[in-house]
Amino acid sequence: MKVTEHLKNAKKTLFSIEILPPLKGDSIESLFKHIDALMEFKPPFIDVTYHREEYVYKNRENGLLEKMAIKKRPGTVGICAAIKNKYNVDTVPHIICGGFTREETENALIDLNFLGIDNVLVIRGDAIKSESRFVPDPEGHNYAIDLLSQVLDMNKGKYIDEELLNAHPTGFCVGVAGYPEKHFEAPNLKSDIRYLKQKVALGADYIVTQMFYNNQKYFEFVETCRNEGIDVPIIPGLKPITTIKQVTILPSIFHIDIPEDLSDAIEGCKDNRAARQVGVEWCVQQSKELIEYGVPCLHYYSMGKAEPVYNIAKQLF
């Protein structure tokens, strides 16, 4: 079932999670253990992130270094199929620009379509850790809107090979990302929302936001979107802080603000256990206020840690 159908049919705010594929060589059982703990709250869909390649340097016999590309977390398509098979829950694989050609993207979408997976989340993705800015594959997409166009073209039966006759259209429900505090590369929020509006006008079905810790940022973002004619569902994304260091790490990675009350409380903790409790309590209060506001779904970035999300969800769902 499509994400938008789940949202339309819901009689109350839904619960969903986002998970990471296991590192290469790890068992999928560790991932299942993570999901098992959260199935009590009946997530109608689960997002599975996609990770681009990283570069490593290996010594060659001649003494020179060889630059090699590796993917540390492969398997998004297979994981989506495994989750669907084991739990009978819809999955939302992330489709990214970075590290993929248009043909590789098309082939992944064909596989997902064959597996009966109805949803995708289209995002540009991050730069490689060793590079200061995003560099697309020469045969890939530079922007999320271009990737979105490819997915929507396939929904119309239009593939890269224009000579295909009677090509079968896919039927993906397509989500895109929204940034209540703006994408860090956008000059301002107005510009960022203009690009978001273009994605919705093109055919994006819903929006899921970057994490935020001040609900007012989300409320203002939704109001601005509605004033601009963006009328698709806007799902808030939340992540509980679980360590003291995250107060400084999360803003640097995700370009978000941490409210003073939260940062002061976390920095005053004597250890990570106390910090995790503060983070859970803050997220619970955020969630309660968002439910009261009438959000269609609360989407939690679990980041491989089920316990904090479980402790939040058990107070809400």
Task: Characterise the protein shown here.
The protein is α/β, with parallel strands linked by helices and 317 residues long. The protein has one domain: TIM Barrel (Alpha-Beta Barrel), CATH 3.20.20.220. The chain contains 11 helices and 10 strands. The strands form 2 sheets. It has an 8-stranded parallel beta barrel, surrounded by 5 helices. Strands 3-4 form a two-stranded antiparallel ribbon. Helix 10 (272-293) packs across helix 11. The longest helix is centred in the last third of the chain and has 22 residues, at 272-293. It is globular, with a radius of gyration of 20 Å. The chain starts with a helix and ends with a helix.
Topology:
Elements: H1 3-9, E1 14-19, H2 28-36, E2 45-48, E3 54-59, E4 65-70, H3 76-87, E5 90-96, H4 102-114, E6 119-123, H5 144-155, E7 173-178, H6 189-202, E8 206-211, H7 215-227, E9 234-238, H8 246-254, H9 260-267, H10 272-293, E10 297-301, H11 306-313
Parallel strand pairs: 1-2, 1-10, 2-5, 5-6, 6-7, 7-8, 8-9, 9-10
Antiparallel strand pairs: 3-4
Helix pairs in contact: 5-6, 9-10, 10-11
List keywords for this structure.
single chain, 317 residues, alpha/beta, TIM Barrel, 8-stranded parallel barrel, two-stranded antiparallel sheet, 40% helix, 18% strand, globular
